[in-house]
Amino acid sequence: MNIVTQVMQEISKMMTDLYHQAIQ
Length: 24
What we know:
Shape: rod-shaped
Helix content: over 70%
């Protein structure tokens, strides 16, 4: 698996988690 793709997925996951926390 491409390391860049993995990092991008991790960042996307973190951003989603932060977004959900912000709207609560």
